[in-house]
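ESCALATION

Customer reports they have been waiting on this structure for their group meeting. Please prioritize. Original submission:
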Amino acid sequence: MFRVCLPFLLTAVAFAQNAPLVIQTDLECDVTVDGKPQGILRTGNSLTLNVPLGDHRVEAVSLTGGFRHLQIVEINDSREKKFTIPLQSVIDREETQKRGYWLDPKTKLMWAAQDNASALSWRQADYYCRHLNTGGFQDWTLPSIDTLQAIFGGELNDAGFRILAPLKLTGWAWSSTPGKQNGEGWALDFGDGGRASVAAGDGGLNRALCVRSAEK
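Update from on-call: job pushed to the front of the queue and completed.
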């Protein structure tokens, strides 16, 4: 009869409830995991910890400037979990909010630091951008759907959006492009990059994210 030693069984069960957590960073920082200091983590390096399944609190403080990022990392199974601390992204967003805009180095387009943060219709979105005064500029416009699509992408951020710019989003973004039918306009979902032709009077999740040419 085959018997399993109890201590061995308990060890095996405990090991099965753990998983490797691999942490990287986009900016050199001092890292703490679940309240335990882990030392300095540099870009290009990794910190690997064997942790129990569940939620884990990862804190990072930049070595310069004192910028701080806190995020809960969820581990549901024993597979390796990779996590990159988006500290540089946090700094970029904070600096963008202070300036009121972000300049795309590729297109030379300037984007308002955030959308209008509330539901509005297609015409209201156009009006909002044409009357926006931020970053010292007043010649903002509602972007075309293709212009919006060009800044979609990257990793899902903590707000649930994929955007290649350090901008603050609170929902979908209206474009200036007319929709499939009369009385509709195209909107972009920065969650999955999908386009939708939406009734012009529909507010819902639709916002105004404004743009201007920096070469004006």
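Sent to customer with the following note: The chain has two domains: 6-85, 90-213.
Escalation resolved.
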